[in-house]
Amino acid sequence: MNTKKMTAKIKIKIGDKVVGEGEPCFIIAEGGVNHNGSLELAKKLVDVAVDCKADAVKFQKRNIEKILTREALKMPYLGPTSFGKTYGEHRRKLELPFDAWYELKEYCNERGIMLLASVWDEESADFIEELEVPAFKLPSADLTNLPLLEHIA
Known about the structure:
- By secondary structure, the chain is α/β, with parallel strands linked by helices.
- The chain has seven helices and six strands; from the N terminus they run βββαβααααβαβα.
- The protein has a single domain (34-152), classed as Aldolase class I (TIM Barrel), CATH 3.20.20.70.
- The protein is globular, with a radius of gyration of 18 Å.
C-alpha cells in the first residue's frame, strides 16, 4: 500500500501576488473594525501594516441593519467600551461610511499595500467589489451562509 500523500500544488493570484506552495508568505494585517469608525485611525492602521511589511490590510464591511435583528439593534449596550446606548448605536459607530472606503482604498494604493475586506452581507460584498478589492474574506460566522457564498461566487 502506498502511504505517500498526494498534495495539490495550487497557486492563486491575489492582486499582483502569487500565493501557494513555494511562494513567499502572504501576510495580511487585520484592521477589522479597530478604526472605531474613524478614517484617520484606519489610515494609521494602514501605516502600521506597511511598516510591518504586510502584503495586505483587511478591514470589515457590514450593513448593521441587514445582519442584526431589531431586538439586537435595540438592546442596551452600556459597557465601558461602548460607543452608544444600544448595541445598534455601538455597531453603527464602528462602521466606516461608504465614502471613507473610497479614500481608504486610494490611501492603500498610495502606500503600496492591498486593501482586502471581510464582508458580512450581500450589499457589503457588492460595494467592496465595486471598489475593485482583489479578494474577499468571509467571516467564520458565515462559513455556512450559502446565499452569501453563492452571491460572492
